Amino acid sequence: MVAEVIRETPDTATLVLFTGNDRLDYQPGHFLTIRPQQFPALDRFCKYFEDLKGRKEPARAYSLSSAPHEKYLAVTVKEERYVSGLTKYPPLLSPLLVWRTQPGTRMTVTGFGGPYTLPADIESRTDHVVHICAGSGIVPNLSILKHCLDNGLKLRHTLVYGNKTWEDAIFGRQLDDLARRHPGRLSIVHTLSREPDPAAYGPNVRRGRVSAELICEHIPDPTAVEVFACGPGVGKFERLAAKEKGEEPQPRFLETALEALESHGVPDERIHRESYG
């Protein structure tokens, strides 16, 4: 049951879920899945898409923004938008979860899974974890940060977080609170690509996108760091559209970040990645 809906940004909401269990067995960075067919408001759309595609409409995966030690379960959902020429099908589930889900709503969730999690031996692998995120890519990384910081893991964290505007930055207050409560263990750098005066939001706010230069600046020893990169990546339909034109798809945030990490000398086995898009 949805116990609370928290509006994080104009197009993003956190759904706090009451499950009846005191503690659930998942890892920070995991996602759960939600089937769109269970919602009566989506029934006709599901049937139409299934007829159009010739297959069953799949469940959608949403990263957990809660951490395993917390008493509640939460997912944070950003509304997907339909972009003509880029998006093949109109988004189905995320608009309903963001705009039409109220406290008291019951739903079936399946789950927990995904490889975007901390290695069991993380403290022996490194003492510095760098999080490189854009948009809703911050969601699983917040879970990882809360787990590490609140449970006393011997790690320091650097978060490089890109958005278009300050209003788009998800979990701004939570991230600031974590940094205040754990001085010296979490440093945050925001970068804003469409904000007229980024410096007005603080000394740790830069202008522009997450760039190779910014990434390299915050990874002094590329062979000793562990990196978690999450954000928009080139999707299946973008690849197919580019292939039909005989072109390579234009890289998005994740491809650009991974190229920068490789050029900087971060070993591939130290890079954990998850794509949205």
3D structure, described in words:
This protein has 277 residues and is an alpha/beta fold. The chain has 8 helices and 12 strands. It has helices at 43-53, 94-99, 122-125, 138-150, 172-181, 212-217, 236-244, 253-264, and strands at 2-9, 12-17, 31-34, 60-63, 73-78, 109-113, 128-134, 156-163, 186-192, 205-207, 226-232, 271-276. The strands form 3 sheets. The chain has a 6-stranded parallel β-sheet, sandwiched between helices. Strands 1-2-5 form a 3-stranded antiparallel β-sheet. 34% of the residues are buried.
Approximate helicity band: 25-40%
CA-CA gap between termini: 27 Å
State the total count of DSSP E strands.
Answer: 12
Structural class by sheet pairing and helices? alpha/beta
Shape: globular
In quaternary terms, these chains amount to: single chain
Strand content: 25-35%
The helix tally amounts to 8
Describe the largest sheet.
6 strands, parallel
Q: Ranges with pLDDT <50 over ≥5 residues?
A: none
Radius of gyration: 19 Å
Q: Looking across the biggest beta sheet, what order are the strands in?
A: 10-9-8-7-11-12
Secondary-structure element order, N to C: EEEHEEHEHEHEHEEHEHHE
Please describe the structure with a list of short key phrases separated by commas or semicolons.
6-stranded parallel beta sheet, globular, alpha/beta, 277 residues, 3-stranded antiparallel beta sheet
Task: Give the helix/strand layout.
Layout: E1 2-9, E2 12-17, E3 31-34, H1 43-53, E4 60-63, E5 73-78, H2 94-99, E6 109-113, H3 122-125, E7 128-134, H4 138-150, E8 156-163, H5 172-181, E9 186-192, E10 205-207, H6 212-217, E11 226-232, H7 236-244, H8 253-264, E12 271-276
Parallel strand pairs: 7-8, 7-11, 8-9, 9-10, 11-12
Antiparallel strand pairs: 1-2, 2-5, 3-4, 3-6
